[in-house]
Amino acid sequence: MHNSKSKRFLSLPALAFFVIAVYAPSSFAQFGGLADKIKNKTPNLLGGKAPITTSLPDAKWGDASKDGFTPREPERSLMTLQRTPNGGFVLQPGYYEMQMQSYCLKAGTHGPGGGDGYLYAPPKGPAEDAVMSIVRNSVQRPEIHQHDIQVLLWAIIARAKFEDLSSELKTTAGRLLTPRQLASLNRNALDVLSGNALTDALGGVPEPLRQIAQAEANLRQMLTTPGTSFAEMERVAVLSGAAPLGPGSQDIPSGRWSLHPDGYYVRYIPSGYSSTRVEIWVPQGSPAVGKEYDPATHVAVPGNTARQRLIQSGRAQAQQ
Questions:
Q1: H or E stretch at 146
Q2: Which strand (E) or helix (H) includes residue 22?
Q3: DSSP designation for 65
Q4: How many CA atoms lie within 13 A of 289 on its CB side?
Q5: 266 forms bridges with which residues in the sheet?
Q6: How far is CA 51 from the centre of its chain?
Q7: What is the pLDDT of residues 47-81, one digit of tens each?
Q8: pLDDT category of residue 211 using cuts at 50, 70 and 90
Q9: Which residues is 278 bridged to in the sheet?
Q10: Residues contacting 23, CB < 8 A, separation 6+
Q11: Distance of alpha carbon 55 from alpha carbon 25, whole angstroms
Q12: Are 97 and 297 in contact (CB under 8 A)?
């Protein structure tokens, strides 16, 4: 007869391997014998990938030859372009900018700063459809506060149980996601671990994976605890202080252009994680003319892996 607790609380080796497998599926080698021993002894009982897997190796379009380059065309607002149903923009030749709302997609890491640059990469992972839908649909829902959208994205990243969220957050989710998407997210949710159970589970997990897993576990608990404020969740998700240089980091200067596969150039200059200046350059004769720039398909990936991944939004950032 199976004890119900056995389904909820896994052994230390099983949970440690799960965290490593989920947060660094391509990085077993860096953990040496620990990962090999855990992998040999236990299966990945919870299975699956992290909801969003986009990382620095996916950012293949940086163009170092354009460092320091500023287009000669007069700078114009992206808002002067025709909008699309996705909340995107129909591109025309020229140099465009917009201060956009942006969102954290990697809890337990540091916000932008320190002169670190960001590169373009597409959203990837099991939850990419839901994440892009939230950002896209928010453009047509200006009454939904940016904080509520960010909390909803944290719930996805942390794999919280949507059925256990506050009624307000469930209402927000229902306005931005389809019932099918909500059901899929609920199927991939994790149980809450806290106290000694969480400490024991993470005991064999190396940094910085431990820090990220701890943040997501804390968010899962906070998201289902009545009265938790946005500021409290933000302190867990966005670390303060000087950011270390994360494993696998690259020296990417601030303002580096990426050449998007559609043929336009894009660069990201964040002002904190929640607001990013996006610049687009469409050269004359570019194949990008007439194509859509959809901010929800852009993840700004930092050269320093200890910093936040940021997804862009077609909503303009209000002046502070």
A1: helix 146-157
A2: helix 12-23
A3: G
A4: 8
A5: 258, 280
A6: 9
A7: 357 899 999 999 999 999 999 999 999 999 999 99
A8: confident
A9: 98, 268
A10: 50, 209, 212, 213
A11: 11
A12: no
